[in-house]
Amino acid sequence: MYARVSAKKAKLLDERDYDNLWKMQPNGIARNLGERDYKKDIDSLGSAYEGVTLVELALMRNISRTMSHLVEISPDRLKPVISGYLRRYDILSIKRLLRWKQGGEQGDISSFLIPVGSYTLEELEELSEKSFEEIVDSIEFSESDINYKEELTDQTDIRKIERDLDRAYYKDLQSIKGKVSSIWFDKFIDREIEYENLKIALRLKKHGLGEEEINEWLVSEEKSSLVNDVIGSDSFNEALEVVKTSIGREKFDNGSSLEEVEKAIETERLERAMRTVHVEPLSATSILGYIVAKVTEVNNLRMLIRAKETDIKNEETIKKNLVVA
Description:
Elements: H1 2-10, H2 15-22, H3 26-33, H4 39-45, H5 51-73, H6 79-102, H7 121-127, H8 132-137, H9 158-177, H10 183-206, H11 211-217, H12 225-231, H13 236-247, H14 258-279, H15 284-309, H16 315-321
Helix pairs in contact: 1-15, 3-5, 4-5, 5-6, 5-15, 6-9, 6-15, 9-10, 10-12, 10-14, 12-13, 13-14, 14-15
C-alpha cells in the first residue's frame, strides 16, 4: 500500500508543471495531462469532448477513480478510516447542492461537485434533481457511527445545516481517531480540525462577531491554543498577526488579506500532508496525506482551466490562488 501511494505521490504536479500549463491553451493542457496520470481519463473521453469540457470531466473521473482505487487496495483495517475521511467530500457536495437549490439552480452544478466519497457523479446528479427538502431528508451515511440527520438542529436554515454537517463529520473523524493506534494519525486529525476552525474564526472575526458567537459556529467544541488565541484577539488585524506568527511570516507579503492568510493555511496544510507520507509510512496517515495532496492538485487544475475558459488575463492573481507545497 505504501509503495503504491509513494508511486502516486511521485506523479503529482509541482510548481514548474503549473507554470508550463499556464502557457498552454485548453487543448494543449488536455494533451499535456494525457501524457501524465490522467492519460486513461483523457483517452476515454477524448473522442467525445475537447478543451475545457474534456479537462473538467477527466479531472472528475480521475479523482473518483483514484480514491476508489485507494479504498480497494487498502488493508481491511484501513478501509473504514479512508472511507470516513473521504466523507468530507460527500458533505461538501451536499452543501453545494443545497446552496445551488437555494440560489435558484443557477449555473451548471456538475462543475462544483466532488465525487470522491461514497457518492458517484451520477448519484450526485440524481440528487440534484430532488428538492432542497428531499436532499436534506436523504442525508445518510450507513457506514458511519454518526447519524448525520439527527445532528441537524435546523433543517431549513442553510447556514445551520452546513455547520451541523461539518460538526457531525468532525465528530465522525474523532471516533475514527480512537480506532487507530497512531500518535501521528491523531495529530493529523487534530490539525485538520484546527485548520477548519481557524478559517471559520478568521472570517467571523472579520465580520466583528464576539467570542461567544464565534464559538457557536466552529466545527468542534474542542479548540487548539492557536484557535483560542485568534478568537481572543482584540481585532481582526491582531488575529491575522497571530496566524502569521504561527505559520511563519516568510509565507506572507508585507500586507495580508483574509484570502492570502487562508491560502497560507491551505499551503501549510498541504506541506504537512506531504510530509506525513514519509513520517509514518505503514499507517493510514501516509494515505490521508496523499489524499489531501491529490484533491489539492485537482482543485488547482480546475481553477486553472476555468481561468482559461473565461479568458482571465491576470496570471499573477490565478497563480496566487494555486496551492502548491
